[in-house]
Amino acid sequence: MDLDIITALLVDDDEEDYLITRDLLDDATHPQIRLQWISNYDQALRYMVNNHYDVYLVDYWLETRDGLDLMREAIAQGCKGPIIMLTGRGNREVDQAALDAGGAGFLAKDEMTLRMLERAIRYAVSKQRHHIEQLLAQLSNEQTREMNSLASLSGEAQAAATSRSFGFVPMKESVPDLFAEFVQLYTNILEMAVEQRGYRVKHDTAAQLDFMAQHLGFLNIGPRDVVEIHLSAVRKMQNIRNPRQTQIYMEEGRLLVLQLMGSLVNYYRRTPRQPTAE
């Protein structure tokens, strides 16, 4: 987020109030604040839930419902940007309710100046950015610990050396091209699982995992190689996604790798298996 330019959405059903706010912010230079205006409650909710702007200025008095309802609904549905409530003069009850609902602050419209508005926006955005940076650092540390734990579970170098001493070689070394194909297949299933979670679309990931398990089972693949496939797919996501996105993939991946293991076990129960090093 660039604090030299901040995008702001004003939710207000009074065009005159929008013009006043716009004229105030036209003089803001450090940072420059780009204001957009929406008067419709439902349309504003969609923008807020999809996090289109850096900050939201919400008037308490809206035509059909009040700004507190909008704030609560937006936050409940995933709005991450700071929300500043614009209230009437001396309305302490509404001011406190806005803070209790998760708002970043409040301003009395009748007393609002450029300095007050600019400072409130800058403070809210800076605080939110700092909070996000802390969360991303925490997520990154958690992801590193989880990846190390999974690597330990798979045995990685030690297991590979032991397997080679008995004449068995891990899949990623014995058939690297085939291993890469399974990693790509698993990555595709992981993408579908994340899409299903985020966009409520329907994908038959269970059937895809069963298909993959049948092919792995036909090759007598064991649990260590399955974990290696999972690790490789998640590491690929880490390279192209930010920490917050990676966390979503890791959460879905935990479920997928367990489902894949279960499908593989079911395959071996139904089908005679040749002995392996596993």
Describe the structure concisely for a colleague.
The chain is α/β, with parallel strands linked by helices.
Structure description:
The chain starts with a strand and ends in an 8-residue tail after the last helix. It is built from eleven helices and five strands. The longest helix is centred in the middle third of the chain and has 41 residues, at 114-154. It is an alpha/beta fold and 278 residues long. Helix 5 (114-154) packs antiparallel against helix 10 (223-240). The radius of gyration is 26 Å and the shape is elongated. It has helices spanning 15-26, 41-49, 67-76, 92-100, 114-154, 156-165, 171-174, 176-199, 205-218, 223-240, 243-270, and strands spanning 5-11, 32-38, 55-59, 83-87, 105-108. Mean pLDDT is 79; it is low at 156-167. Strands 2-1-3-4-5 form a five-stranded parallel beta sheet, sandwiched between helices.
Low-confidence stretches: 156-167
The span between the termini is 49 Å
SSE pattern, N- to C-terminal:
EHEHEHEHEHHHHHHH
**Total number of beta strands:** 5
In terms of quaternary structure, the protein is: single chain
The fraction of residues assigned to DSSP E strands is 5-15%
Structural class by sheet pairing and helices: alpha/beta
Number of helices: 11
Helical content stands at 55-70%
Shape: elongated
Largest sheet: 5 strands, parallel
Average pLDDT across residues?
A: 79
Strand order in the largest sheet: 2-1-3-4-5
Indicate the radius of gyration in whole angstroms.
Answer: 26 Å
